[in-house]
């Protein structure tokens, strides 16, 4: 295993050479990032560069080569592992994730040393979509947006930074699509929609056409959106609509300002868990994130959804797989089961709420007892904090996610005891129609414009109005132009969506008038089949506001929606 | 890190500052600090005044990140080696200036 002693100096020279090459490569990428994105984003690779220049890393690696007569690859791997394990001790989750940067640097050095050429992804045929298990941030940053149309990763890991880089480069990306890679063959046609996280395999010609047109349109629109940032979201007949941001990653908070969103309508707190390679985030980790959310979301505030773990979303270790996860131990049910985890999260939220307007929304409420129990726990947590003299917010608003049929039918009772409602239209559609939209044999049945779903939405909206509480739509319907028309017509005035969609939806709202939207919605409610509703709504929208209706994504082509994040 | 302030007739400059930017010494802020520190001749070390971490080399990104200094953490800067006065003033200035961030 050991090198002959006389080869040690050569090995050290080889290592130093690799460091120089790695520096050049990263400098090169950074230069390109800076040109494409400006100084702000190119910082992501700054730690990589500084790590390569860091004397302590170099010294330790050279010493390892010396002491163990090791080859450079082995030394890099060993020393990098030491650094990574030191980082995993850090309490702060954000800093802890810097271990990904160390890993990235180490892999780059090793691939230079071993001469395994990292395949230059930019030399793929143009118009390529990359499907990979994982893509390191520095590799993602090297992608040429002119040649690489998008990428999909099946694993997490360094996902969060990779996703941000993709977004900042304007490369559509969908990350963490677990069940995907086995079902794709090289050379197949695939569509990815980075704004909704939709991946479509083997699309029909019609779907392909639709998405191609949408891409062109988006390119054109991007040029205008900047000028429209300040314009209010108000219909042509004067109805004001609140457009809020759905946020998963803390790093996306900037997007609130970029899109001029009215605060955060949904913060999916379980991503704190997904991002962390180290299990559940601590109270302090959470506090920091929530506090930043509170401070950055301003007057409009932010709604934090308590952990929506379990089921099809994310798995906690220690819980066995369930035969029927969508109907199993998940969301609020799981939080009640592991109450200490729930209480930790509540403490973090209550402390952070001192610094801004935070609200809590509870996922998957199916009966009033769950709401009452959660409220009792929150009151207890407050009492404990008061007794201990811990600064926290009092009387935080507590809302309910309306996303299962039982919550809809009990919306009146719930609305009397909740401070606000949030309509999760994705889950609601799924549970109303008994369709798992990730199951391609039935996903064509998933349709938020199903008349039953529309009635459910109206029922909930009416209940909220009568109880004089707010109701926010935070599913994908809120970012679908055609469906937004129906939502407004049904009485919704508060929509939360991925920040990228806000400019386009604002345009839609400014283009339409409420009177017509109400007529369309009323008629749609009276129709009897999903196909009729889709056909009618599209036709009407086309007739009244042709300029924003895109060549329709017909009901049939929805069958192509195979995978959903 | 060893300072030779006994053997060599060198002065040690030091100052205590509080991390004020919201994200603390996270990647970008740490990188700024390391870049600035690397421009000085002096040896510069940083330590948390709550002694939760041994002093680190201000010119090492690994070290600075390991400090895990969140907002409101108190940091002592110590420098020695010729331009220590300038070094401490510059680093303290950068930190007081919220490391160029919000």
Overall description:
The complex is a heterodimer of chains A (565) and B (102). Chain A has 565 residues and is of the alpha/beta class. Chain A has 24 helices and 14 strands. The longest helix of chain A has 30 residues. The radius of gyration of chain A is 25 Å and the shape is globular. Chain B is built from three helices and four strands. By secondary structure, chain B is of the alpha+beta class. Helices cover 30% and strands 21% of the residues of chain B. The interface between A and B is medium-sized, with 24 and 21 residues.
* CATH class descriptor name of the largest domain in chain A: Alpha Beta
Q: Determine the most extensive contact between two protein chains.
A: A-B, 24 and 21 residues
Report the radius of gyration of chain B as a whole number of Å: 13 Å
> Strand order, biggest sheet of chain A?
12-11-10-9-8-7-6-13
| Contiguous runs where pLDDT drops below 50 for at least 5 residues of chain B | 1-8
Strand % of chain A is 5-15%
- Regarding quaternary structure, what we see is heterodimer
Mean of the pLDDT scores of chain A? 84
Distance between the ends of chain B: 32 Å
Q: Helix/strand/pairing class of chain B, anyone? A: alpha+beta
> How many strands appear in the DSSP assignment of chain A?
14
CATH homology superfamily of the largest domain in chain A: Phosphoenolpyruvate-binding domains
**Helix content range of the residues of chain A, please?**
40-55%
Give the count of structural domains of chain B: 1
Mean pLDDT of chain B: 84
Question: How many helices of chain A?
Answer: 24
Largest sheet data of chain A: 8 strands, parallel
């Amino acid at each position: 295993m050991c090198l002959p002693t006389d080869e040690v100096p050569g090995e050290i020279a080889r290592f130093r050479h690799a460091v120089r090459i790695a520096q050049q490569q990263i400098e090169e990428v950074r230069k390109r990032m800076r040109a494409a994105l400006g100084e702000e984003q190119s910082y992501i690779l700054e730690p990589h560069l500084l790590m390569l220049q860091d004397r302590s890393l170099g010294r330790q690696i050279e010493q390892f080569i010396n002491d163990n007569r090791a080859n450079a690859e082995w030394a890099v791997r060993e020393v990098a592992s030491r650094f990574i394990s030191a980082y995993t001790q850090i309490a702060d989750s954000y800093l802890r994730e810097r271990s990904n940067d160390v890993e990235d640097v180490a892999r780059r050095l090793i691939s230079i040393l071993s001469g395994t050429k990292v395949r230059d992804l930019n030399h793929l045929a143009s118009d390529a979509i990359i499907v990979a298990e994982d893509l390191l941030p520095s590799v993602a940053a090297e992608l040429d947006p002119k040649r690489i149309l998008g990428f999909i990763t099946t694993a997490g890991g360094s996902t969060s930074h990779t996703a941000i880089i993709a977004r900042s480069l304007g490369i559509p990306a969908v990350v963490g699509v677990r069940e995907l890679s086995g079902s794709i063959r090289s050379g197949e046609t695939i569509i990815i929609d980075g704004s909704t996280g939709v991946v479509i395999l083997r699309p029909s010609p019609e779907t392909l056409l639709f998405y191609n047109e949408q891409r062109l349109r988006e390119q054109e629109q991007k040029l205008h959106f900047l000028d429209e940032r300040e314009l209010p979201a108000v219909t042509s007949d004067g109805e004001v609509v609140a457009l809020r941001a759905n946020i998963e990653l803390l790093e996306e908070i900037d997007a609130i300002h970029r899109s001029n969103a009215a605060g955060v309508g949904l913060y999916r707190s379980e991503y704190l868990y997904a991002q962390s390679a180290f299990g559940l985030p601590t109270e302090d980790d959470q506090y920091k994130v929530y506090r930043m959310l509170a401070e950055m979301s301003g007057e409009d505030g932010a709604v934090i959804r308590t952990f929506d773990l379990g089921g099809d979303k994310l798995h906690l270790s220690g819980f066995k797989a369930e035969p029927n996860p969508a109907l199993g131990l998940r969301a609020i049910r799981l939080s009640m089961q592991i109450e200490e985890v729930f209480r930790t999260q509540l403490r973090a939220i209550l402390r952070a709420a001192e610094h801004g307007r935070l609200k809590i929304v509870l996922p998957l409420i199916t009966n009033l007892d769950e709401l009452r129990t959660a409220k009792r726990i929150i009151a207890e947590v407050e009492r404990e904090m008061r007794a201990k003299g811990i600064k926290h917010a009092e009387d935080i608003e507590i809302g309910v996610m309306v996303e299962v049929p039982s919550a809809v039918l009990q919306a009146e009772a719930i609305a009397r005891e909740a401070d606000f409602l949030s309509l999760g239209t994705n889950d609601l559609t799924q549970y109303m129609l008994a369709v798992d939209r990730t199951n391609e044999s039935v996903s064509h049945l998933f349709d938020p414009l199903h008349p039953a779903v529309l009635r459910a939405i109206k029922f909930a909206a009416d209940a909220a109005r009568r109880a004089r509480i707010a109701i926010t739509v935070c599913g994908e319907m809120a970012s679908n132009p055609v469906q937004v028309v129906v939502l407004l017509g049904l009485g919704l005035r508060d929509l939360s969506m991925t920040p990228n969609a806000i400019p386009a939806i604002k345009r839609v709202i400014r283009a339409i008038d409420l009177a017509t939207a109400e007529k369309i919605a009323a008629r749609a409610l009276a129709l009897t089949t999903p196909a009729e509703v889709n056909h009618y709504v599209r036709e009407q929208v086309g007739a009244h506001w042709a300029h924003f209706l895109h060549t329709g994504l017909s009901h049939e082509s929805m069958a192509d929606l195979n995978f959903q994040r | 890190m060893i300072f030779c302030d006994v053997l060599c007739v060198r002065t040690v400059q030091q100052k205590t500052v509080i991390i004020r930017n919201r994200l603390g010494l996270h990647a970008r802020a740490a990188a700024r600090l390391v870049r600035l520190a690397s421009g000085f001749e002096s040896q510069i070390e940083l330590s948390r005044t709550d002694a939760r971490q041994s002093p680190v080399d201000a010119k090492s990104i690994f070290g600075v990140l390991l400090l895990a200094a969140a907002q409101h953490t108190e940091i002592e800067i110590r420098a020695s080696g010729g331009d220590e006065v300038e070094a401490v003033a510059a680093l303290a200035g950068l930190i007081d200036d919220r490391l160029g961030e919000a």
